[in-house]
Structure prediction request, 362 residues.
Amino acid sequence: MTISNSTIDRGKYGRTPAMTTRADEVYNDFMSDTRNQLLHAYWKHMGERGNDLMAKAGVKIEHTAEGVAKAREVIGKDQYLSTFMRIKRTAQEIYKQRIVESYGVREEEYLRRMTDAETRGPGTLTYDPNFVYPDYAKVHIHIQPGGYVGSPLAGMLYDYGTSVFYGGENAEDALHKRLAEQTPKPLDGKAARILEIGCGIGQIAVEIKRIHKDAEVIATDISAPMIRYGHLRASEQNIAVHFAQMPSETLDFPDGHFDLVVEHILFHEIPIPVLDKTLKEVFRVLRPGGTFVVWDFASAEPGKPGYAGLLGLMDSADNGEPYAHEFVTCNVEKRLEDVGFTLRSRIQPGVMMGSRVCDKPA
Prediction:
């Protein structure tokens, strides 16, 4: 994507608009490296250390305000864990704010580019400027200022913010490309209509369209700022994805309309009642024999608490993830089966990502 500036066009950071200044970019590169060192090198060790400290203190891990307060007391007595948690939170806060400030300098230009792209193909864009967001969608997820709906530049903030979060591992949407390649077709091989729910800025949808060139690919999200930017991003890559503003729990499509539906890291960011409604809607819009692929946090298991452990508790409190614990402990696999799906496969290689492949009986 090429986004110009009256003074200088700094091009792109992969597929993401570069920061306004080189100083901003270097700053966030440093913060990315700092997060990499903390999260990737020490996450497992600190998680085990924290769970052990909580057990020795006789304090249960409870995802309540009181539970967080008790956990902070335990953490505060351990210099290593308390320093880890403080740096983790602070690094997230300051790099997010730097992105807001850097893009904010050119906000009018970015918004004009999105507006100009609204009627430009090869894909389409549909949204409601007067849409009233439910309270659950107004959370500042990942402590992104304004969350996903409170800033007109939310899509851009998310794009660069996650680039820093992944520490270079998602350059050119490499992660989304890999997941798209690993997303299976229905058992009968037919995938003419494909839907991504909670698409964000449409990175998975775009990569799926690259693979399924003849398929109609639709990407929905509750956030207008996210899909406005997603449409601009896709159109600049000349990829025909059709973006529509739509809550996942009220999909405006006919029964049995899609061959394949994909979800990527939406479910841990919505409340359980909304999740349950979404599962019913996905089952409804899938044709008999269609497939639903869930890419999201791994479920907690005995001996493998994952996100249900201490670090998950504190991440939920400090990183704007109020619904994540509910998701990893809700037994989403059973919920899928209760709706009517047949679970074809389930893979949980780590805490942050697992897959569930489900089929609607033919």
